[in-house]
Design brief:
This protein has 737 residues and is α/β, with parallel strands linked by helices. It is built from 35 helices and 17 strands. The strands form four sheets. A seven-stranded parallel beta sheet has the order 3-4-2-5-6-1-7, with helices on both faces. Strands 8-13-12-9-11-10 form a six-stranded parallel beta sheet, with helices on both faces.
């Protein structure tokens, strides 16, 4: 086809004056009857590579896509290009009625339809196979082709059948397209589709307009709300791991005055479609979606993509962040990272086939390595997809703009490896860190590990430091964590070789999370630095003068009431008060650890003090950053009602599909917000009276805070953890709430 004709079709059908990058060559190759493989980042113009050939070639192009939402979106777009001819493009999937299917069939058989979008599941239906056998097929386009590969981020078994279905329906050229594929995935796609002879077109994966940032997952909801309110009117997508979290986040945003809607596979088709249309038409600013569900939303001016939960793979991360800035404008990509999320994803793998676990573990560890790295994030992403990036500083990611401090950790890594090799059994990260830092606890004593020659070899560092070293050893491949054996650590062959001949390894200093997802004990300087960082994250530091006055008031009231000061309000609660300046009981309830009961019982004097301080000092309160909480969940109501009926906790947990640890955390959260529960009936069955008295006295007379971890650490092995937690709940309900 002459070049001028192709450009005329481009202008007539799509309104563009010129092709982008290699689009023209891709289209010519397909029109000539050859197989094509296209690797092009999101926003690069993949759709045009099969839409224009479909319009000019004889017959109907079959576009196989997993994204039902995208089908509707693209069919509407094609119909818009060809005015007055609705039949030029159709989709065939489970959302259609019988009458609609009959209409599609008629247009196909008459030769009107140039583009037919089908889901792979629909392609396997016998009636659809027979229908497609009756028409002339110009070519097959396999969109989202990475779904074919088990090493891809969104593997779909039904995609593995596409080649056999093509053979059955009738052969025609194949164009496979994907926005994310490593060399391994690319090879897998081409072999499975039997297009190893395909001409390969590979565009650059660099998206220079995107800013990449990974943040520690500390109060992410507050941080997200603050970010969105600082960028009013901008379109954005928030990804969450579960449908439940999607619903919670969408509700939280709405309550805080942000126009947001949920989008996940659990919603009915009409709701999903309506929510998508409202996002595209800018009736809402934010869509909250599950990572696992492909949104297929073709919106060019998405200005931010936020991952509330870390993605399962780099490919998934790249594709999802790629939805930002498709028009070439600014795109901010923020990901929240906690190793606790990684542990959740690892748990999901347990019980799966070994081969699937191995693939999942490798993909996940690549994501962890990306999140924890101190290197340029752009360089890491491009290298992952087999593309080099020569600049040392991209100037548009958090690591280039704010480099993390590092140190040569070869000596420390050697000490870790020697300890693991010296132990006859394998242990988790925390236990190894305790031995190295010289910390004695019940588990260390029970194994006599405090008698080991290597006990305390790294006592100049905290267990937090050693947790970080071990974790980075896993990322570097020197150590391995077994998912099936509940996270036990062993040394790899690479690690054993490193121990004998160490070389420089640069470790990051500032990671604070253990593999359990919580912070370990910090020294005073670390704690102060941490508090300052936390305050800065929430939109401004604590007001030191007000905080000092609130602490004095708490001390005076506690002395008058003959209680420990923390029983009234924790330090974290006072810090929130000195940041948010609450002037009503409702505002006070928004402060961390303050519920309705606590606010009413102890809040009056604190509110009056804050009012006086705000007036005298003409304080401008940060109203925009007071996060309103979501109303009580059904779980919370059910738990409170069940405890009122004196149900056994085990029965409550079973009824709600929870384990005991999850239930205890729910109960502790309920109590922390000021709700009073009476667990005496359960405690009487589970804990000796003498133990109850001793633990109650500890919380009343000795405890410096309401921290469970502090209590377990102080009380040691003489008491079971469940006993400590139950009596702590009893004490808080009777005294604090």
């Amino acid at each position: 086809m002459p070049s001028k004709d192709l450009h005329r079709f481009l202008k007539d059908f799509f309104g563009y004056d010129r092709f982008k990058d290699e689009q023209e060559e891709i289209i010519r190759t397909l029109i000539s009857g050859k197989n094509v493989f296209v690797l092009m980042p999101t926003g690069g113009g993949k759709s045009l590579c099969y839409q224009l050939p479909a319009m000019v070639m004889e017959g109907t192009a079959i576009v196989i896509s997993p994204l039902i939402a995208l089908m509707k979106n693209q069919v509407d777009a094609i119909r818009g290009f060809v005015a007055g001819d609705e039949g030029v493009a159709h989709f065939l999937n489970s959302s259609l009625s019988r009458a609609q299917i009959a209409e599609v069939r008629a247009d196909l058989l008459s030769g009107t339809t140039k583009l037919l979008y089908v889901a792979p599941e629909s392609l396997t239906k016998e009636e659809n196979i027979q229908l497609l056998k009756e028409i002339k097929i110009s070519f097959y386009a396999v969109d989202e082709a990475h779904c074919i590969s088990e090493w891809g981020h969104d593997f779909r078994p039904e995609y593995r059948r596409i080649r056999s279905l093509i053979n059955e329906i009738g052969n025609a050229p194949v164009i496979a397209l994907t926005a994310t594929a490593t060399p391994k995935v690319q090879s897998d796609i081409m072999k499975n589709l039997a297009i190893t002879d395909a001409r390969v077109f590979k565009a650059s994966f660099n998206r220079p307009n995107l800013h990449y940032e990974v943040r520690d997952k500390i109060e992410p909801e507050k941080d997200i709300i603050r970010y969105i309110k600082q960028n009013p009117g901008r379109s954005g997508i928030i990804y969450c791991l579960s449908r439940k979290k999607v619903e919670e986040m969408a509700t939280l945003l709405e309550i805080n005055g942000i126009k947001a809607l949920p989008y996940h596979a659990g919603l009915d088709a009409k709701t999903r479609s309506d929510n998508q249309d409202k996002f595209l038409s800018e009736e809402v600013d934010v869509i909250v979606a599950t990572i696992a569900f492909g949104m297929g939303i073709d919106k060019p001016d998405v200005r931010f993509v936020i991952h509330y939960d870390i993605p399962k793979s780099i490919e998934g991360y790249y594709q999802e962040t790629g939805r930002a800035g498709r028009d070439g404008g600014e795109g901010v990509c923020i990901t929240y990272y906690s190793y606790k999320d990684i542990r959740k994803l690892e748990k999901f793998m347990q019980g799966k086939p070994v081969a699937e676990q191995e693939i999942g573990r490798q993909l996940l560890m690549e994501t962890v390595a990306y999140a924890e790295s101190n290197q340029c994030r752009r360089k890491l992403l491009l290298n992952y997809f087999g593309e080099s990036y020569d600049k040392d500083n991209c100037g548009c990611c958090d690591n280039c703009l704010h480099p993390k401090p590092t140190f040569d950790g070869r000596k420390e890594m050697q000490q870790v490896i020697r300890l693991i090799q010296a132990l006859p059994e394998q242990f988790k990260i925390e236990h190894l860190a305790n031995i190295l830092s010289g910390k004695v606890n019940a588990l260390v004593k029970s194994y006599n590990h405090d008698k080991l020659p290597l006990f305390g070899i790294g006592k100049e560092h905290s267990e937090k430091f050693w947790c970080a070293v071990i974790h980075q050893g896993i990322i570097l491949g020197l150590l391995m964590k077994e998912i099936e054996s509940y996270g036990l650590i062993h040394v790899t062959d690479k690690g054993a070789a490193f121990e004998k001949e160490p070389y420089e390894i640069r470790l990051v200093e500032d990671r604070i999370f253990t593999s359990e997802g919580y912070e370990v004990e910090e020294d005073e300087d670390e704690a102060q630095a941490r508090a300052a960082a936390k305050a800065a994250l929430r939109g401004g530091g604590a007001d030191p003068m007000l905080l000092s006055m609130l602490k004095e008031l708490r001390k005076d009231l506690a002395r008058h009431l003959k209680l420990q000061p923390w029983v009234l309000f924790s330090d974290a609660s006072l810090e929130d008060m000195s940041i948010l300046y609450p002037l009503t009981f409702d505002e006070l309830k928004n402060c961390q650890g303050v519920g309705e009961g606590k606010a009413k019982k102890y809040g009056k004097d604190f509110i009056e003090l804050i009012k006086m301080y705000v007036e005298e000092n003409e304080i401008i309160r940060p109203d925009d950053f007071v996060v309103k909480s979501v109303p009580k969940s059904t779980n919370k109501i059910y738990i409170i009602q069940s405890i009122d009926r004196q149900m056994a906790l085990e029965d409550i947990a079973e009824a709600k599909g929870m384990d005991m640890e999850e239930l205890m955390k729910e109960i502790e959260t309920i109590v922390a917000t000021g709700t009073r529960l009476n667990l005496d009936y359960y405690i009487a069955q589970m804990v000796d009276d003498d133990v109850v008295d001793e633990l109650y006295a500890y919380f009343r007379d000795e405890a410096k805070s309401d921290s469970v971890e502090d209590a377990i650490r102080e009380l040691g092995a003489d008491y079971e953890e469940i006993e400590i937690r139950l009596v702590r709940i009893k004490f808080l309900c009777e005294i604090a709430n």
